[in-house]
């Protein structure tokens, strides 16, 4: 294990407090130890890191952040936290946790035992445009997938060929049912391209800046 720097702590996500402190291994930045920090009902998952600005164009560090969150998600329901959330010391984290306790409690209730799944439906290039069929595909997909999911969020249609771009919050026990419904829709609408992704941390269903009043969380 590489020596941990200073007292400043980087927060990756938040989980319900386990009975005992958890060490997730040396998977943080520069191989630093990732562990839970006891803050009563909820625990931030942290590593000791230099107090600096974490650049949004640093692909390697963003990837490490995402990998840590994904690893924690394998075992616990999580509230993902925005990349770059660094605190000078444990006391400042505790202050933010207390200030955000109500929001954290509400968020964990929403995401408990759930994951995020994404669906995009495209009209292939050079395909014949049938507005009625497109609307039917979109409407039926929306209705059938919403019946399995607990929440959904419509995202930006960034292309004129994009019929649907929606994230769904799905109970872990229903992921297989959701995936099965996606496969049925693919068979029923072969003229469209379905892009199915996940499971992801529930970024679209919580405030990822829950520990900070300003984006980036630099304190």
Mean pLDDT: 89
Helices, by number, come to: 5
Main sheet makeup: 6 strands, antiparallel
Supply the helix-strand structural class.
alpha+beta
What's the total number of strands? 10
Low-confidence stretches: 215-219
Q: Based on Cα principal axes, name the global outline.
A: elongated
Cα Rg: 20 Å
**SSE sequence, one letter per element:** EEEEHEEHHEHEEHE
Helical proportion?
A: 25-40%
> Distance between the terminal alpha carbons, to the nearest Å?
26 Å
Report the β-strand fraction as a percent range.
Answer: 25-35%
Main traits of this protein?
10 strands; 6-stranded antiparallel sheet; alpha+beta; 30% helix; disordered C terminus; 4-stranded antiparallel sheet; 219 residues
Topology, please?
Layout: E1 9-16, E2 23-25, E3 34-36, E4 42-48, H1 59-73, E5 78-80, E6 86-87, H2 90-99, H3 101-111, E7 114-122, H4 131-146, E8 151-154, E9 162-171, H5 175-188, E10 193-200
Antiparallel strand pairs: 1-4, 1-5, 1-6, 2-3, 3-4, 7-9, 7-10, 8-9
Helix pairs in contact: 4-5
What features would you describe in this structure?
- The chain is α+β, with helices and mostly antiparallel strands and 219 residues long.
- The protein has 5 helices and 10 strands; from the N terminus they run E-E-E-E-H-E-E-H-H-E-H-E-E-H-E.
- Strands 1, 2, 3, 4, 5 and 6 form a 6-stranded antiparallel beta sheet that branches. The chain has a 4-stranded antiparallel beta sheet with strand order 8-9-7-10, covered by helices on one side.
- Strand 3 (34-36) and strand 4 (42-48) form a beta hairpin.
- Helix 4 (131-146) runs antiparallel to helix 5 (175-188).
- The chain is elongated, with a radius of gyration of 20 Å.
- The two termini are 26 Å apart.
- Residues 215-219 have low confidence and may be disordered.
């Amino acid at each position: 294990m590489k020596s941990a720097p200073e007292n400043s702590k980087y927060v990756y996500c938040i989980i319900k407090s386990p009975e005992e402190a958890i060490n997730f291994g040396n998977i943080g930045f520069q191989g630093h130890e990732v562990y839970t920090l006891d803050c009563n009902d909820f625990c931030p998952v942290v590593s000791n890191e230099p107090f600096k600005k974490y650049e949004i164009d640093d692909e390697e560090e963003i990837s490490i952040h995402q990998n840590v969150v994904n690893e924690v998600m394998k075992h616990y329901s999580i509230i993902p936290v925005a990349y770059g959330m660094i605190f000078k010391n444990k006391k400042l984290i505790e202050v933010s946790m207390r200030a955000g306790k109500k929001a954290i409690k509400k968020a964990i209730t929403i995401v408990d035992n759930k994951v995020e799944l994404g669906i995009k439906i495209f009209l292939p290039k050079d395909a014949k445009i049938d507005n009625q069929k497109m609307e039917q595909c979109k409407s039926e997909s929306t209705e059938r997938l919403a019946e399995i999911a607990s929440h959904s969020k419509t995202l930006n249609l960034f292309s004129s060929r994009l019929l649907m771009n929606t994230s769904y919050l799905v109970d872990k026990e229903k992921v297989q049912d959701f995936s099965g419904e996606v496969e049925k829709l693919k068979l029923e609408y072969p003229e469209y391209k379905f892009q199915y992704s996940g499971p992801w941390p529930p970024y679209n269903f919580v405030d990822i800046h829950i520990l900070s009043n300003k984006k980036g969380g630099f304190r």
